[in-house]
């Protein structure tokens, strides 16, 4: 059939017969399936009722005009997240009430092959950037892949299965990388078939990620079994899963007749999978029976197995299992070990640990005995807490807790006694219980005069309910350290008379020795660390040098400010209150003082004094003096409370003030929503103890950081966060939703919160009418410039005309993410975990510029073919100091060069192996080894250790394709060796410059005065000095991390080569020599940790 002739099945209703030129896909890709959500101008199915029919004469410009016209009449949708309790009925959607499901799930290799034999349209990508629609099928004898239409004759428009070398998922060939339209092709819909001795590629794009996975899984299955005959039907009947299901059925079939009542079968499947709805199970049985043209209330063994397989197989998990098991229907201990090491980032995994996992999660007794994990056990394992997205190391206190109090973010509550809005809400003791159980470490007590000389806490806008001060103190004493062992700060607002203040002071005996009463030492410069289990009182204090039993202090009455601001006669003046000595003496290291400006505060404020800022004032300061605010917060505590106009107790955005280093950002715990999600998610880290260590760039005495930075942070390595949203499970109907029945159209929104340069938001496509297991299969990338301050919020919404309705969310700090395939437990609007409601995702974090985090996340990514950008030092304006910093310019360039040269060499090897940048080096070596094994299972190269570095040497003649890969591998080893050998010398040079510069730190003002610098010029010089010190420290740390990464890489490469048998052909005890070399690498690594690096 000639290229350009009509496909044999003819076009569908939406297709048009095209000649050869017209059959080429329109370069703008606006109408293609399988493209990322943004590639076609966000052209999603939004149920707008608009249709854009294709026509033979439609040009790209006409398509664009039609889209613009459609956009004008399409109603805009709100992205506002609404409180579910206030949801209104939305417009009805068109819902299909068909009694039978139309699609069959893929649950076995035979399903994949049946799909391929039926054929489907794929887009064929050519190196010349042209893309053609072709109909691909698999021959009935499973020996060849064919496509139509084609200029070639039928016998040439095919690819023999026996000629296939590799099948790659994603855009991982030169054709894709060099194609001008590659950015518009979805990574998850692309696949490549490498064939022939020269590894030529057939590059294809499916119309969905599911279809791509089916072709990849099916082809891999065929290639892996091409050397042996097999019977698909026989194979599907003898899988570990089918044998287990037969055992389950026979155990429940008490009569032994091979049939069972439908009611019994339904109950049995619900026991095996509690998340399934009874109605869905019964519908599946009816579907199966209808296909067999029978109608009965009894179920056979085969029907039971078929129903369970279709209902309980998650295709995305099946595809993953086939991929990591090398095309088997189960995982053995070695498969699982490789998966945990290379994909999940688990270190020090052993075969026995894998067998233990199998014994705990495999459902069949045979699997547990023989040591294999079938699809159902693997699904259970992926859903278990062991595969949770939250790093288990962060579930305990993992940060340095010896720093001063001012170096931590502190979990803080505003108007803790309220459980409703702050204007009319009643006081309730449960407000304190709830806050303390959530590890809140700063709570508020606004105390007023009460009856019978007993102080009370109440909302002075609603005097109907009040709490006695004593009862509140007793509750605090009881719950203070239930959720956290670290200091609790009581923010005391005193609005009562002196006699009742004395009663308050008498109640201190309730706390006993828990109360912190040590006087601050004037000789110290910083607050003590939070290592003590103490209760600290924050409040006003009388001057210590005056022998007064009582005196006047300014009143910090935030609640009164709220009422006054709403009145017409408010003039902004603060009133004075009388304070007794007994209550004043309870305040030690958290004395409340009034903020004036940073110049006065830095000169005269004592380290034990704390300023409170209203949200409005703090926002103004953060915008006008971002660097000064960060520097101020290095020594002093700052407390920020919500604006007086938030009478509904809504919450401020805490991230805005964390970016400035503000430690105590008070939140209204009674008000759920996005801002409270951020707050709750942030304080999950560090064991949920209520204290989170701030980034070092915001703690170091001499460092530069601006809260409003919109680019790279000096001395910090940017990272790239790769998130693949794979699927969702058991999404509930939004609370308050109506008119749509049980149908929802979910999509996932990913929000990045952090410094302004990192804030971003992206969303998946909408999956129509699927709440049980919607498949998204979309990948996103985010550059993170300050990882230590970044948070990710996953939010699931129901796509709706009037307003997208909230389904669930989960918020997590970037530092707590675990890499690999993970399930995210979604939380409700009020923050409760929803049972069985999850998101299935894949996470990878790569370094954009080298260095970075721990080995399990320390991967590499190509920077791109552009001019290398070096971090520049600034001119201070003082010659003596500038001369010192000039010496550091060359070492800084060397440091960046060796780091990035190594990273680029690693990425080149990954690309030639057909792997994405997020792949680990172990995955890379395992892929490479499959090419380097001859047909007789002997290696074509051998591992040779030279100077303790793992080189690969050819054993005889090898093809040009392998020579290219080995050349890239040698370059990677050489660049890694160069970095390891040069790192110490370069590091020492940078550190020496840093130390020499720091010697002038104390004399900066005097040197500036001698040079005639003052005012803004002097401040600029001090800022530039801090910038340079930050760059030097940061770059030396990055080099240190890069060396550790390189050493770890060499060790992983050697282990991978040994496990793949690449040392078998080496001469005379090569394996023993390799092991000795591995020990040498480990000793070198240990020595470096104990030495300079």
From TrEMBL:
It is found in: Cytoplasm. The gene is PLCL1. This is Phosphoinositide phospholipase C. One of its GO terms (cellular component) is cytoplasm. It comes from Monodelphis domestica. The lineage of its organism: Eukaryota, Metazoa, Chordata, Craniata, Vertebrata. GO terms for biological process: gamma-aminobutyric acid signaling pathway; lipid catabolic process; negative regulation of cold-induced thermogenesis; phosphatidylinositol metabolic process; phosphatidylinositol-mediated signaling; regulation of synaptic transmission, GABAergic; release of sequestered calcium ion into cytosol. Residues 583-699 form the PI-PLC Y-box domain. Its main location: cytoplasm. It is an enzyme of class 3 (hydrolase). Keywords: Cytoplasm, Hydrolase, Lipid degradation, Lipid metabolism, Phosphoprotein, Transducer. Residues 699-828 form the C2 domain. It comes from the Eukaryota. Its EC number is 3.1.4.11.
